[in-house]
């Protein structure tokens, strides 16, 4: 199985498996390809540049583009699409390679245009693909200046559960046809070597993520690796104390969501507080999967905070805040999806109310200066978690800390 995603320009795409498994089952003749290109040229009218719906500061617009990029939404930009669909030959041609086929039935033609416009990165894994996907996403984070400011799309495609050489060769061939780059995490040394040799033969730029670090650790420990992917038959995963701790943390966090059971706040490792839609619940869940018991307490004007919040160890508590314009946008979408009445919308997503509620939360934070306040605007959950855990462990290890009043 595999998944596809486009950073910067297109939505999540799903390509039929047959497109990879049987690349030669539906050959495309040059005449039909020419007719398809002519039809595309004559039928699609020239598009006018989209009129921006919202004008904000350059910094805010940049953050909005980054947020859209992370969520996989398309970014409409003037001139980033052309009426004519050009079929680019791969940088490293393969004998018998076919040109890229027209959009298949059921696939949006705009998405297909976006797909051909960007550079592709194929990822192969013999397991879930978590390592490959997160490694590539971490590396792509170094190119946001290009992905956002210059609209250079990058399409990532994940092929997971690849455990035989024949299937591996089919994907490498398709990678060569599309002029893509290949990244792989294959625990079996023979599979990894097959991928390396195939990429060399077909001229595919490739990176082995797992091999070099596995060899380095094997050399350091003086022990040979098993060569078995995660989840392979024969691998034994004992239920460790850490596993049960994580399960307990997840159960605790679910029960403590949105201010529930305030009498249990003293049992939490971490307590999050902030106004509605500052990301308390997803952040709590993410931390729980790391083994931390997390409670979150909403700040709402006119509603008293639980007394236990001020009685627990203040070094457990972390405040969350956000830009008011972004918060208003999120709340408007939330109110619309829940079908709120006009009156409730005015008391929830109007700018005056949003600002007053943020100011109210700010006064509470200033009255409790030991609580660090984390600015979540423009931050992914992983980034907020990194800041929060650094502060959390600095306190537990009695490390020196910067000024508490600073927002992180």
UniProtKB/TrEMBL annotation:
Swiss-Prot/TrEMBL keywords: Kinase, Nucleotide-binding, Serine/threonine-protein kinase, Transferase
Annotated stretches, region: Disordered: 17-100
Source organism superkingdom: Eukaryota
Pfam families assigned: Kinase-PPPase
The keyword Transferase is assigned to this record: yes
The keyword Glycoprotein is annotated on this UniProt entry: no
Biased composition (Polar residues): 28-43
InterPro entries assigned: Kinase-pyrophosphorylase, PPDK_reg
MF terms (GO), sorted A to Z: ATP binding; protein serine/threonine kinase activity
PANTHER family with a match to the protein in the record: PYRUVATE, PHOSPHATE DIKINASE REGULATORY PROTEIN 1, CHLOROPLASTIC
Protein name: Pyruvate, phosphate dikinase regulatory protein, chloroplastic
Organism: Nyssa sinensis
């Amino acid at each position: 199985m595999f998944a596809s995603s486009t950073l910067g320009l297109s939505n999540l795409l799903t390509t039929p498996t047959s497109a990879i498994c049987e690349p030669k089952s539906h050959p495309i003749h040059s005449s039909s390809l020419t007719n398809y290109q002519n039809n595309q040229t004559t039928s699609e009218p020239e598009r006018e540049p989209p009129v921006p719906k919202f004008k904000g500061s350059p910094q805010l617009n940049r953050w909005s583009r980054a947020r859209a990029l992370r969520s996989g939404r398309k970014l409409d930009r003037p001139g980033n699409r052309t009426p004519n669909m050009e079929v680019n030959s791969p940088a490293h041609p393969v004998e018998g390679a076919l040109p890229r086929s027209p959009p298949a039935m059921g696939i949006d033609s705009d998405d297909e245009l976006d797909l051909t416009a960007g550079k592709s990165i194929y990822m192969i894994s013999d397991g879930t693909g978590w390592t490959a996907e997160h490694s590539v996403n971490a590396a792509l984070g170094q190119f946001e200046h290009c992905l956002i400011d210059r609209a250079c799309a990058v399409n990532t495609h994940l092929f997971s559960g690849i455990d035989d050489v024949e299937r591996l060769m089919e994907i490498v061939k398709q990678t060569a046809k599309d002029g893509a780059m290949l990244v792989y995490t294959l625990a079996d040394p023979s599979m990894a070597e097959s991928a390396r040799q195939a990429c060399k033969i077909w001229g595919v730029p490739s990176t082995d993520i797992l091999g070099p670090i596995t060899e380095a650790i094997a050399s350091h420990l003086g022990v040979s690796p098993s060569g078995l992917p995660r989840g392979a038959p024969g691998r034994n995963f004992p239920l460790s104390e850490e596993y049960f701790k994580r399960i307990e943390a997840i159960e605790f966090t679910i029960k403590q969501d949105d201010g529930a059971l305030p009498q249990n706040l003293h049992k939490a490792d971490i307590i999050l507080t902030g106004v509605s839609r500052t990301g308390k619940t997803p952040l709590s869940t993410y931390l729980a999967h790391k083994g931390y018991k997390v409670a979150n307490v909403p700040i709402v004007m006119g509603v008293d905070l639980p007394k236990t919040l001020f009685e627990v160890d203040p070094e457990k508590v972390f405040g969350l805040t956000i830009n008011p314009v972004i918060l208003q946008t999120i709340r408007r979408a939330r109110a619309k999806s829940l079908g709120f009445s006009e009156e409730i919308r005015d008391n929830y997503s109007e700018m005056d109310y949003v600002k007053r509620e943020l100011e109210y939360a700010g006064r509470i934070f200033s009255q409790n200066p030991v609580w660090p306040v984390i600015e979540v605007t423009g931050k992914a959950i992983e980034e907020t978690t990194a800041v929060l855990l650094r502060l959390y462990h600095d306190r537990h290890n009695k490390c020196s800390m910067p000024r508490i009043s600073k927002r992180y």
